[in-house]
Amino acid sequence: MASNERILILGSEGQLGSELSVILQQKHGLQNVICSDIRNGKPEADRRFMELDVLDAEAIEQVIISENITTIYLLAAVLSAKGETNPNFAWKLNMDSLLHVLNFAVKHKVNRVFWPSSIAAFGPTTPRDFTPQLPYMDPTTVYGISKLSGELWCQYYFNRYGLDVRSLRYPGIISWKTPPGGGTTDYAVEIFHEALKKNEYTCFLQENTALPMMFVDDAIRATIELMEAPAESIKVRTSYNLAAVSFTPGELAKSIQKRMPDFKMGYKTDYRQAIADGWPSSIDDSAARKDWGWNHQFDTEGMVDEMLDNLKKQLLG
């Protein structure tokens, strides 16, 4: 497939990158999409892959130059729960990688940059219900602090240098293709694995903790739609609120029990409960819907069907 785009994905082996890369390859051709991470998570040879450390600024710059990169997706990050075990490293990786990319994008005239934010950028004094696009934000985790700071850096580079940086505040992303990656919302992925393996799950969040969630297919589509939207449609240069569904662990368990009546759910909270308590229970994403036509496709029941059907094939054959 002919394409004028030359795309670099940093962090291609994570939950979002592993699926986004496939769609981008289909749209732009294998040779025009370079996947990269600190490890190669796929043995298949039907793609272009480079081992790259996002903290290795020189190596990243060389790839941008040698491959004539026009678009960068920076997806590498230390997530919320994992970040709290080593906050200094989480800050360094999350922020240094972004500043490397923003600086090189300006220097080498990269057309467009995508960088993901998160609901972790909100905080305990942010309105929890129907959280607006421009609320007060006081994140309590190093991951959230880095996301809020990164949003402001993205806006700064747009305002000062005209760099076309685009961003989404993702809710919890649910996928059957990749294992949980250390996020507070990852219970909603773990529960399906444990339901099929053991017919039971012990959740680290309380039964009534509502959080915004999204099936990965919607998250991928939102990302591509945002990046393909005309520049004049992008009114938010920090990061767009993005929403699909919201549910509690108890509600998710009941949905699974409709399909697996013997499934048992238990609760044993840990430090991640305090993180979740500082996050929204639902999101107002009307700006994204108005500016570039966002609309989710998967509700909770549709997502549960997709997860169970596909994981059964993957885990049980």
Question: What would you note in describing this structure?
Answer:
This protein has 317 residues and is of the alpha/beta class. It folds into two domains: 7-172 and 215-241, Rossmann fold (3-Layer(aba) Sandwich); 175-213 and 245-282 and 297-316, UDP-galactose 4-epimerase, domain 1 (Alpha-Beta Complex), CATH 3.90.25. Helix content is 43%, strand content 15%. It contains eleven helices and 14 strands. The chain has helices at 15-28, 57-66, 80-83, 87-107, 142-161, 187-198, 216-228, 249-259, 272-277, 286-292, 300-316, and strands spanning 7-10, 33-37, 48-51, 71-74, 112-114, 117-118, 164-166, 168-170, 172-174, 200-203, 211-215, 240-241, 245-247, 264-267. The chain has a six-stranded parallel beta sheet, with helices on both faces. A three-stranded parallel beta sheet has the order 6-8-12. It has a three-stranded mixed beta sheet with strand order 9-11-13. Helix 1 (15-28) links the parallel strand 1 (7-10) and strand 2. 45% of the residues are buried.
Question: What's the helix and strand layout?
Answer:
Layout lengths: L6 E4 L4 H14 L4 E5 L10 E4 L5 H10 L4 E4 L5 H4 L3 H21 L4 E3 L2 E2 L23 H20 L2 E3 L1 E3 L1 E3 L12 H12 L1 E4 L7 E5 H13 L11 E2 L3 E3 L1 H11 L4 E4 L4 H6 L8 H7 L7 H17 L1
Parallel strand pairs: 1-2, 1-4, 2-3, 4-5, 5-7, 6-8, 8-12, 9-11, 10-14
Antiparallel strand pairs: 11-13
Mind telling me the C-alpha Rg?
19 Å
Total number of beta strands: 14
Order of helices and strands: EHEEHEHHEEHEEEHEEHEEHEHHH
- Largest beta sheet: strand ordering: 3-2-1-4-5-7
How far do the termini sit from each other?
A: 34 Å
Average of per-residue pLDDT values: 94
Number of helices: 11
| Largest sheet report | 6 strands, parallel
Structural class: alpha/beta
Q: In percent terms, what proportion of residues is strand?
A: 15-25%
What are the segments in which pLDDT stays under 50 over at least 5 consecutive residues? none
